[in-house]
Amino acid sequence: xxxxxxxxxxxxxxxxxxxxxxxxxxxxxxxxxxxxxxxxxxxxxxxxxxxxxxxxxxxxxxxxxxxxxxxxxxxxxxxxxxxxxxxxxxxxxxxxxxxxxxxxxxxxxxxxxxxxxxxxxxxxxxxxxxxxxxxxxxxxxxxxxxxxxxxxxxxxxxxxxxxxxxxxxxxxxxxxxxxxxxxxxxxxxxxxxxxxxxxxxxxxxxxxxxxxxxxxxxxxxxxxxxxxxxxxxxxxxxxxxxxxxxxxxxxxxxxxxxxxxxxxxxxxxxxxxxxxxxxxxxxxxx
Length: 286
Prior knowledge:
The chain contains 11 helices and 12 strands. It has helices spanning 15-26, 28-34, 42-50, 68-80, 89-96, 115-119, 136-148, 166-171, 187-196, 234-237, 257-272; strands at 2-3, 36-40, 55-60, 84-86, 104-109, 127-131, 154-157, 181-185, 200-204, 210-211, 221-226, 242-245. A 7-stranded parallel β-sheet has the order 8-7-6-11-9-12-10, sandwiched between helices. The protein has a 5-stranded mixed β-sheet with strand order 1-4-3-5-2, with helices on both faces. Strand 7 (154-157), helix 8 and strand 8 (181-185) form a beta-alpha-beta unit. Helix 1 packs across helix 2, helix 3 (42-50) packs across helix 4 (68-80) and helix 7 (136-148) packs parallel to helix 11. The chain is elongated, with a radius of gyration of 21 Å. 44% of the residues are buried.
């Protein structure tokens, strides 16, 4: 392992940075302690560079430089990362815990977004609230959908997967770098703060809620999603007065959380206008 251009010097013993990054990838406690997370792959690191993320350390292998896009990324990381070093294929695989990778992994500083700053956005965009979503890949994909549909951020309560888990970061497809996230929130206090900020929490339920096309999404709304098995935790259900359901054919019990979120967030976008300012609709039909 050797330092590339733009670095601040050698990394020291070969095992030290590999072990540290591996612990960072595997431990939410370590990510919290260091205020950092691990991202890998060409697309994610391109997003990190493009969004001005603080890249503390980048490791690249010869695999990255086999294609022009990879070579361009290696050059950008050499210029932008505090330290950028060459590593073996095996070293990167050991960090990520998987043999298949694209030859690049990085330690990136987390951007902290206080809840008040997310709730105080002037445009009052819809927010996505994850309560007990335990699969990090699903959580990352939810973040991706929220960003695509013009959402204003993700609020994750305690008991929800870590949004900075490598699987969540990967599933976000780069949305983690530009959509604000607040995690580890106490559910009751979060609902109180939503109310103080004039947001209406709307809980997604499999059946019995208001049909999605009859909800007024023009208001500041926080869409609350629970786990696929248990739904929103019981202690929060009684504090949320409004619920929404997706009408379904009789043979279908429910949609998975990602599919439901996509439909609901795009229904909100339909009421408010498509992301990017393109007009779509001003009110629901039917």
